[in-house]
Amino acid sequence: MSPMKGSGGGTELARMIEGPWGAGIGARDPKFVHHWFSLVHGAAARLASLWQGNRRLWKLWDEVERESGAAWSSGELAKRAHLSAEHLRRLCLPK
Question: Which residues in 72-84 are b (16+ Cβ under 10 Å) and which e?
């Protein structure tokens, strides 16, 4: 679980994956499929890079998931991650 996401997020990736197949291009041209796959791989890698980062954040999001009913504030989140609220905010911005 992570609240970090880029603009477009999974929708952008889903459109990329479905695009050529929905247009009827499909697997007719192996060169096209190769280049299409490279583009999708690049988009997936970029999206995945948003989810990588500070281990303290992963531990924090795991804690939030375990206590999903808690009334979390940015101050409490920062305290649990041993960060300032501003530092936590910056770490959660899309890269």
Answer: eeeeebbebbebe
Distance of alpha carbon 86 from alpha carbon 43, whole angstroms: 29
pTM equals 0.47
The answer, yes or no, to whether residue 89 has pLDDT greater than 50, is yes
The answer to whether 51 and 4 have CB atoms below 8 angstroms apart is yes
Question: pLDDT tens digits for 53-86?
Answer: 667 788 888 899 999 888 999 999 999 999 999 9
Distances (CA, A) of 36 to 17, 49, 79, 91: 8, 20, 44, 32
Structural tokens at position 36? 């299409």
Phi-psi group of 9: left, alpha or beta (phi > 0 → left; psi -120 to 50 → alpha; rest → beta): left
Q: Which of 68, 38, 50 is closest to 10 using CA atoms?
A: 50
